[in-house]
Known about the structure:
four-stranded antiparallel β-sheet; 27% strand; globular
Amino acid sequence: MAALVELLRVNKYFGTATEVLRNIDLCVQPHDTVAVLGPSGSGKSTLLNIIGGLLPPSSGDVLFDGEPLANRNAKQLAALRNREIGFIFQAHHLLPQLTALENVLVPTLVHPKDEQRRTAYDRASELLNEVGLSERLHHRPAQLSGGEQQRVAVIRALINQPRIVLADEPTGSLDERGTDSLGDLLCQLNERHSVALVTVTHSRRLAARMQRTLELREGSIAMADQNA
């Protein structure tokens, strides 16, 4: 099976001396679930941003569907991120003036046709129902619990039917029970919606739910495990 995302000998420097990532090789297949562990400052978030086309590598190649991201201009990269890649962050970044449903629909506003927007509305309602928020569609973020806000953020990442979701410390603000609940949700969505998942986390509890675990140490992959 062809890789969905592939990193080949990727290095990342900030300035002239700060080496953040060193000789990273990584292959993510369609439907994979991958956890990236490591201490603060090990380069985890930088790696995620490079996979998502938010940062270019200093050297090496990042391929999406076999095509180097370096071949795409800024407009093409933005379109790729909107259509093919979903992002989940520790801070939910929900807009406080919008309802849960409206927040989920924000990434669809670039759709030029009314029919696409109507389809997105139906899909957003269906997905929010799927994660138990059918009674909270028209509540604003301040009226939702932290776990409910995170579920809204997860569904927002899925609304454009991406092929891969990148999650940066999605359980950072959750307790053990919330971590388990979000782990359940991510695994269910991976299975039901055939979306690959790469999650950066400090939580070995969440990492154990993924098919593979990578550990970054000082910018290099120090360990790679196949989880049971």
